[in-house]
Amino acid sequence: MENTVPPLPGSTRKPRRKKELHSIDKRYFRSRWKSFLKQDDDGQLYVHGVSMQELERKFGTPLYIFSEEEIRSRFKRMLNVFSAYPKIRLQYPCKINSNLEVLRMAREEGCDLDASSVGEIILGLLADFEPKDISFTNLHKTEQDIFFAAQLGVRYITVDYIEEIKKIHEVGRKLGKQIDIMIRINPLLEWRGYSTCMHKYGIPLDEAKEAIDIATRRSHINLCGFHFHGGYINSPKPYYEAARVLCELAGYSRQKGNRVEIIDLGGGFPRETMAKKVFQPEQMGDRFVNHFQELLEEFGLADDPPELVFEPGKFILSAAGMGLMKVISRKYLPKDQHLVVTDGSTYGFVPDVLFDKKLQLDVLPAERMNAPRIYDYAIAGNTCDHWDIIANKRKLPKLEEDDLMMIMDIGAYSHVLASNFNNMKRAPIVLIDESGRIKLIRRRDRYSEMFAPELDVLKIADPYELQRYYHLARKNLNKVWNGSEKMEEEHDRAGIGF
Ligand SMILES: Cc1ncc(COP(=O)(O)O)c(C=O)c1O
Predict the structure, then answer these.
(1) Beta bridge partners of 68
(2) Which of 33, 106, 215, 264 could form a disulfide with 227 if both were Cys (CB 3.0 to 4.6 A apart)?
(3) Which domains does the chain have, with CATH numbers?
(4) What proportion of the chain, given as a percentage, has pLDDT over 70?
(5) Ligand 1, closest atom to CA 413?
(6) Measured in angstroms, how far is the CA atom of residue 96 from the centroid of ligand 1?
(7) How many angstroms does the Cα of residue 293 sit away from the middle of ligand 1?
């Protein structure tokens, strides 16, 4: 019997029969999407067998969509790459995408958590990480922050500048305990266009031994290892060089009587975008592990080898997340220029396009995958701001109002960086598993919570009062047009919220 997707009350789109799915034409396809992205003969796009039209009907647009399978397989892949080292660990950097379901997956895949604030430590606890599986690494911690983390018993706190060692020691003294610390080092690397010489992270190499000496002398400090975070690393070489610098310092620390438990080489593995080729972790693999083991021998650490830690962020999440948007309007401009305005924006949906001017993301016509791509489109966001252009010169078929389009590879640094600019709500997030089960893992923002900080100071933050203001000015149009109470309930459940 043929399957049909049932319509929701009030839906503007016709229910579709489920079709045979097949791979996308290779001209428009990237191999990193192969585990989750397909299309049917009519040119409709599917994620794990779920059509974009179905998602639009249930959750509205803009909408973030994640493949659970892709996230989990990337964690496994990363662990596998370095599995030749018996004490390999991954830490998931919470800042990349701090959704609780993503954190839960990271935990289930055997990762520890890299928290960059007390807020992220709390999220880690909410996602059921044990304090001993959370580390606290950032550039600035107040005494309160250190107190909170140390009393909770996080695995370690990473020191980013020399004075911080004294600050942590002082908290340890007040708490009457020894606090485990790592020292973050800036190894001052330069390699073919990549340089850490102007990086803000860590203690510059020239001061590293002084930092070790100071930490060693403090009785409420236990110096347990060394950290490096390279940001946007463009080849394996910086990892090799950073490992050398950190192991040499670890050897020095060991001579001073400290046990070296951890060498952490941070994140920085690149993300793939449009046509950009980047190096893959597999290019490091066993070769890197051999190099690391040789360093342990060279610097007298091999008899008690430390854990080797990586903190991959964008490599894990970027390709596993995409964004569904809708065309609001088309504008035909002089010199044969085509522009569409979408209901997504750079500010509220794809923010890293704003920071990285060279970033080029694939945009797929989610309902016209078979149509010839004959126009160069500029794709604009819906905010009233000049810079809000999501993509330029994207070859796409002729687009119409209400067409769905998918922006790819935005699973990292998207929702966490997005703002409510223009006082618009940020998009909800759905997670789809291999069998096509859809889970709403974050609902759309609500005006009440967006305005709360200001309403609080005006002392009118009573939720009932807010509701009254709200209903004075707005009607639920779906209810008015369709006379449907149920539609509102469906949307409430889906987290769309009016
Ligand atoms: C300490 C730390 N670890 C890991 C990451 C993740 O980096 P990436 O996404 O480049 O892998 C970051 C990002 O800023 C970071 O600050």
Answers:
(1) none
(2) 264
(3) 26-68+319-442 (2.40.37.10), 130-312 (3.20.20.10), 456-494 (no CATH)
(4) 89
(5) 9
(6) 8
(7) 24
